[in-house]
Amino acid sequence: MAQIDNLPPLRDVIRTFELDARKSLGQNFLLDLNLTARIARSSGKLEGVTVIEVGPGPGGLTRGLLAEGAAKVVAIEKDRRCIPALEEIAARYPGRLEIIEGDALSVDMAALADGPTRIVANLPYNVGTPLLTGWLEADWPPFWDSLTLMFQKEVAERIVAKAGDKAYGRLSVLASWRTQADIVLDLPPQAFTPPPKVSSAVVHLVPRAEPLACDIKALARVTTAAFGQRRKMLRAALKHLGGDTVALIEEAGLKPTARAEEIPLEGFVSLANIYAAALKG
Ligand code: SAM
Q1: Pocket of ligand 1, candidates 10, 20, 24, 29: which has the most ligand atoms within 8 Å of its Cβ, to mutate?
Q2: Rounded Cα gap, residues 150 and 147, in angstroms
Q3: In a domain, 174, yes or no
Q4: Ligand 1 atom 5, closest CA
Q5: pLDDT tens by residue, 101-160
Q6: Number of domains within the chain
Q7: What are the respective helix, strand and coil percentages of the chain, to the nearest 5?
Q8: Would 4 be classed as within a structural domain?
């Protein structure tokens, strides 16, 4: 394995600091520094950029980000055992790596932004999806310039899916409402140590400057109802929203017989706004 810095190979780091992978923390590590540098580059040019990295583990991706020129990396890690390994990297890159020990779900990341800021992470699915939803639903424009996130392939496909795709669902609507989302890299299980059961993919999301005006809470309720019963026609799936379901659907310019998987973003935004107005009305 070619080294991108003069730090020890990651296998040695894991041995030295006894970082045996823990399933409970979703630990599947990337040990190939050429690959982590490639993932770092998939977030764009890093000069002058602050990167918030969630779940650095033994630091493979952290080293990729620093070697590729990130001005500063703020790394948030829940597993205390990883901190000494990360401190070794901080010493190699003086003033450029800040380490925060904690649960990413309860850290105020907006407060960590410093100039142009991106988020890059290789996270377990159970943490990655709530974090992504939180970032997409927050006040707009967001504090980040882009998100570059590793997911199980199947989740990545859901994020980037468009109307008519098999994977199209709530997450696709939310992501396409506020961002342009693309899969930029596919990774087989063998890229990780230990290898997970499924393939993974890196998704890159860039915020839209002017997303369609939409009531977020109503959008969440409408898409939950519609995709909760995705095989049913909208007039049945949206019934428990209350009120005159057919009138709501027709006012949004949609067919009551259509199914959720056929409705493009604009259709859901209309449904959400009309539903929100009816609730207020
Ligand atoms: N970034 C490293 C890599 O690519 O090799 C590690 C990736 S591993 C899939 C996920 C990392 O996220 C682990 O280091 C784990 O301890 C950490 N993690 C899990 N849950 C977390 C949470 N709630 N907050 C912060 N870190 C978390």
Answers
A1: 29
A2: 10
A3: yes
A4: 29
A5: 999 999 999 999 999 999 999 998 889 999 999 999 999 999 999 999 999 999 999 999
A6: 2
A7: 45, 20, 35
A8: no
